[in-house]
């Protein structure tokens, strides 16, 4: 087993995973980041979605050694300033999903949130159809999906409002 080093949620982490260990299992078992859930273990359900170098990926389909030298963001890394617990520390997307009652049991939540985070990062003005398509690879067994879509739409709207309120920086001599 060779050591690998990667950045996880902004922190450099080192570990010695077996060559066949998935990134999902490495995050959960070796780094104790249990917010990444493992559902189908075939890349179908999306519960294990993390952001790797800015792109949403299924961590159950990727080996931990493939993430060496790369940047990984898990659901734990989305809390503003590393806050945990309570809904006071939620980011815009997470708060919008909370406000929209987007989830029931919560098992699929991290995967949906990570997929939506990556998507909205690239498509901040996405409409409902684009969001539906972007999230179509994630499975939820509890909801009818509409409340999840509503949460992502609400987050996109709130992000647009925040962008429009931000004053332009002025250079002073």
Structure, explained:
With 173 residues, the chain is of the alpha+beta class. The protein has two domains: 4-77, Ubiquitin-like (UB roll), CATH 3.10.20; 92-166, DNA polymerase, domain 1 (Orthogonal Bundle). It has five helices and five strands; from the N terminus they run E-E-H-E-E-E-H-H-H-H. The chain has helices spanning 23-30, 92-99, 109-122, 128-135, 146-165; strands spanning 4-8, 11-15, 49-52, 55-58, 71-73. It has a five-stranded mixed β-sheet with strand order 2-1-5-3-4, sandwiched between helices. Strand 1 (4-8) and strand 2 (11-15) form a beta hairpin. Helix 2 packs across helix 5 (146-165) and helix 4 (128-135) crosses helix 5 (146-165). The longest helix is centred in the last third of the chain and has 20 residues, at 146-165. The protein is globular, with a radius of gyration of 17 Å. It starts with a strand and ends in an 8-residue tail after the last helix.
Question: Summed up, what is this model?
Answer:
The protein has helices spanning 23-30, 92-99, 109-122, 128-135, 146-165, and strands spanning 4-8, 11-15, 49-52, 55-58, 71-73. With 173 residues, it is of the alpha+beta class.
């Amino acid at each position: 087993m060779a050591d690998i080093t990667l950045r996880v949620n902004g922190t450099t982490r080192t570990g010695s995973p077996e060559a066949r260990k998935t990134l999902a299992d490495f995050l959960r078992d070796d780094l104790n980041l249990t917010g990444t859930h493992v559902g189908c273990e075939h890349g179908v359900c999306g519960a294990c979605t993390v952001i790797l170098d800015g792109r949403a990926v299924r961590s159950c389909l990727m080996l931990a050694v493939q993430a060496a030298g790369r940047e990984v963001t898990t659901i734990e890394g989305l809390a503003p300033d590393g806050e945990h617990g309570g809904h006071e520390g939620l980011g815009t997307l997470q708060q919008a999903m909370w406000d929209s009652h987007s989830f029931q049991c919560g098992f699929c939540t991290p995967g949906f949130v990570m997929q939506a985070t990556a998507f909205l990062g690239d498509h901040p003005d996405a409409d409902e159809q684009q969001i539906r398509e972007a999230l179509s690879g994630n499975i939820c067994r509890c909801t009818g999906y509409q409340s999840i879509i509503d949460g992502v739409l609400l987050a996109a709207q709130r992000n647009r409002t925040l962008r429009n309120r931000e004053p332009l920086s002025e250079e002073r001599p």
